[in-house]
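Researcher: Let's do a round of design. I'm pasting the structure tokens now; please hold your answer until I've finished.
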């Protein structure tokens, strides 16, 4: 059975292959980035060091889930909802700078489906992810959830936030992270993220 890549490349055991997709993808790779044969899952350099592959129920199309173990989950908090439908709450409010629009930032994250199944986590790679915020390279829910807007306060360095991202701000009606007919993200999926804003990337142009 083929293991699907969350963003772009075929993942061989113990090997993460990289690929630089065309500029119009939902998240341009910066470091440790993979791509998809259909839609990128997050072009957040998402790797598949999976513990197991779990088949979805018929109600969740024919997608394939990659289930992680030993990932980090933040304490629960009560969600607030923006007009866009984005749910958010702060586990810890940071004390540093806001994320600079269009620049690179470093974050740790754990990503789950609405039922709590973890499908990706930067903690599995033991280092934060560097990604460009506010430039249309991420799904809309992550841009709004970190940068703020429409009533959502911006995250500050050191902050930890939970996000509930509806399909309209994620990947919408099509599956994502597909490879060889298997898709890691089912259509119309609501995604849950624990975001830890580690810092602003030191290599940004001054």
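Researcher: That's everything. Go ahead.
Model: Designed sequence:
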């Amino acid at each position: 059975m083929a293991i699907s890549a969350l963003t772009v490349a075929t993942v061989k055991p113990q090997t993460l292959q990289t690929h630089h997709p065309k500029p119009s993808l939902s998240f341009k790779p910066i470091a440790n980035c993979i791509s998809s044969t259909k839609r990128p899952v997050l072009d957040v350099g998402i790797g598949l060091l999976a513990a197991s592959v779990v088949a979805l129920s018929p109600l969740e199309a024919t997608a394939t889930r990659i289930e992680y173990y030993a990932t980090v989950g933040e304490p629960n908090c009560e969600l607030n909802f923006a007009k866009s439908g984005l749910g958010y709450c702060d586990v810890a409010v940071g004390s540093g700078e806001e994320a600079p629009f269009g620049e690179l930032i470093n974050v740790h994250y754990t990503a789950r489906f609405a039922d709590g199944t973890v499908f990706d986590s930067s903690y599995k790679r033991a280092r934060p992810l560097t990604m460009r915020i506010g430039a249309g390279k991420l799904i809309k829910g992550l841009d709004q959830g970190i940068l703020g807007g429409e009533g959502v306060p911006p995250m500050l360095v050191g902050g930890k936030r939970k996000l509930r991202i509806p399909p309209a701000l994620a990947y919408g009606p099509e599956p994502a992270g597909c490879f060889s007919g298997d898709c890691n993200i089912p259509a119309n999926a609501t995604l849950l993220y624990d975001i830890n804003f580690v810092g602003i990337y030191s290599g940004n142009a001054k």
